[in-house]
Design a protein that fits this description.
Number of helices: 9
CATH superfamily: P-loop containing nucleotide triphosphate hydrolases
Helix content: 25-40%
CATH architecture: 3-Layer(aba) Sandwich
CATH class: Alpha Beta
CATH topology: Rossmann fold
Distance between the termini: 32 Å
Shape: globular
Strand order of the largest sheet: 6-7-8-3-9-10
Bound molecules: adenosine-5'-diphosphate, magnesium ion
Radius of gyration: 18 Å
Largest sheet: 6 strands, mixed
Length: about 240
């Protein structure tokens, strides 16, 4: 078996005296896709943020290529941030920046020597990929939730990441926009990028996920393969409903 690119070992996370997730262990191999599924409030976004190194576990460890993210040096952390990109459930664009600046900032941080022209080129190309054609010199608050998702997606792709963390990434999009992003993620998959995603959309889960991890009540309930969903009607029903039967 290939070495995992991301591994959670006995990870728990508590905030304000509430244990949000408990004792999660999972592995994602390089070039594979893992779906996190389960009921709302079950802890999927929290697990995704822990895997992406955006939350620090209160117990256990999250490893990126075998290194504990919480113990990384600044340089190692920057390299991890450059390789891994996140689309947040609520898009989380920078509200005091215009859309152009939201896309430019990651390039400025990670490629400080890139010319303005090259940055412009990368931004234009990425916006074209996601299908955003409107004004980019406006702030995120002027966009619909779906348009914000497109920009959030563009921001995640701007560094051409090897590892994608996508939270409910087709939610609030119309069918055309969703299909476009599905096409882009398919392309990432074909290029052997690693994808960890949260979705409620059975079609997406069935199409994309090599493995499916079910999270409920802050605990990992079960991890299954794509073939297992096809074979087990009960599991398909559980995933479709997002709840345990
Ligand atoms: N920082 C936090 N402090 C307190 N409660 C939290 C925090 N983060 C998440 N929770 C709670 O933990 C539960 C799981 O949240 P979340 O991971 O967003 O679930 P999901 O993405 O599966 O809907 C929710 O009830 C949420 O309110
Ligand atoms: Mg969530």
């Amino acid at each position: 078996m290939a070495e995992p690119i991301i591994e959670l070992k006995g990870v728990s996370f508590s905030a304000q005296n509430v244990e949000v997730v408990r004792d999660i262990s999972m592995q994602v191999e390089e070039g594979k896709s893992l779906a996190l599924v389960g009921p709302s409030g079950g802890g999927k976004s929290t697990v995704l943020k822990l895997a992406a190194g955006l939350l620090v576990p209160t117990a256990g460890e999250v490893l990126f290529r075998g290194k504990n993210i919480a113990a990384m040096t600044r340089g190692q952390n920057l390299a991890f941030r450059r390789e891994g990109a996140v689309v947040f459930q609520d898009s989380a664009l920078w509200s005091n920046q215009d859309l152009y600046q939201c896309l430019e900032l990651p390039l400025k941080i990670h490629f400080p020597k890139m010319s303005r022209e090259d940055r412009n080129g990368r931004i234009t190309e990425t916006l074209k990929d996601v299908g955003y054609t409107k004004n980019i010199h406006i702030r995120p608050a002027m966009l619909s939730a779906g348009e914000q998702k497109l920009i959030a997606f563009a921001r995640s792709m701007i560094l051409k990441p090897g590892l994608l963390f996508l939270d409910e990434w087709t939610e609030s999009l119309d069918d055309d926009a969703a299909d476009r992003l599905i096409g882009l993620v398919k392309k990432q998959q074909a290029e052997k990028r690693t994808i960890i995603f949260v979705s409620h959309d059975f079609r997406i889960i069935k199409n994309f996920a090599d493995k499916i991890t079910m999270i409920m009540g802050g605990k990992l309930y079960r991890t299954i393969t794509r073939d297992e969903i096809a074979e087990d009607e009960n599991l398909s029903r559980m995933i479709k409903k997002g709840i345990a039967l």
